[in-house]
Amino acid sequence: MKQGADLQSLIGYQVQRANLRMDADARAALADHDLSPAKMTALILIRDNPGCDQTALGRALSINRSSAMKLVNILVDKGLIERRPGRDLRTNALVLLPHGEAQLAAMMKAMRASDAQMTARLSAAELRTLLDLLDRIGPDDTESE
Amino acid sequence: MKQGADLQSLIGYQVQRANLRMDADARAALADHDLSPAKMTALILIRDNPGCDQTALGRALSINRSSAMKLVNILVDKGLIERRPGRDLRTNALVLLPHGEAQLAAMMKAMRASDAQMTARLSAAELRTLLDLLDRIGPDDTESE
DNA sequence: TATTGTTATACTCTATAACTATA
DNA sequence: TATAGTTATAGAGTATAACAATA
């Protein structure tokens, strides 16, 4: 299939294509671990923010409370995290359990290998440049200045 | 929420974040047009490859025949494309209809504006660099040499 | 045998709306 | 009033498995 000039010139489309390639490889790398890349991200966020509540986790993952609820249920059912009493009687405090920590370590290893393999054709300097450019993608703020 | 070193160093994660930001803006830009970015991409591919069949379209979009079928049904129902007799009696030839062409033009305009707005903080040279780096993300081929 | 389209079914992820308890 | 969690329900998008027609 021909990919015309319209598609080639859209940055958003090319970012999406790159993301699809990386995500497919990451999913394959995690296939043995029974968790999607997004669920692994959730585990990392909970580990790095112990005691966070579900709503905050959802915000960090760009999903709403209800979706965060489902995600947390799955991780709890698998014995990877735990809900503990939170800072008031409404909130849960999420913590990573030892089992989750162990599984996360194994997944991170597979994920790093996938990441390195997919970016093997870029030098360290190019990777730094890429991260910088990606980070600067976002709404133009000139109107609010 | 803290975003620890593990996440910051994963290129795949940062590509995904950038993609999420651009996709959200693109969806908002297309909200009036009743078609997702992926469906707009399908229209572009059909326009640039008139007479292509559903399976080829699916391959270009990284979805299987069955999913392509559903997508094509939606575009046909909206009067944007048409199934015509293909190169043999098994295949359909997909073509963009005038109505689809008009809607695609309007969507491209909105999409280009969104794309430009989200990349406004990058210079033309930086955008070229970004496209080059993104294009080089993919499986390392060294073992097959 | 292989391929294209098609249909039925199911799964994942996400969202909305409403409810409860708490603040 | 506002917020956190919860539940029920629904929609989009995708996949698998099977079948018919055609190659």
TrEMBL record, chains A, B:
Residues 8-139 form the HTH marR-type domain. InterPro entries: HTH_MarR-typ, MarR/SlyA-like, WH-like_DNA-bd_sf, WH_DNA-bd_sf. Transmembrane segments: none annotated. It comes from the Bacteria. SMART domains: HTH_MARR. PANTHER family: MARR-FAMILY TRANSCRIPTIONAL REGULATOR (PTHR33164:SF57), TRANSCRIPTIONAL REGULATOR, MARR FAMILY (PTHR33164). This is MarR family winged helix-turn-helix transcriptional regulator.
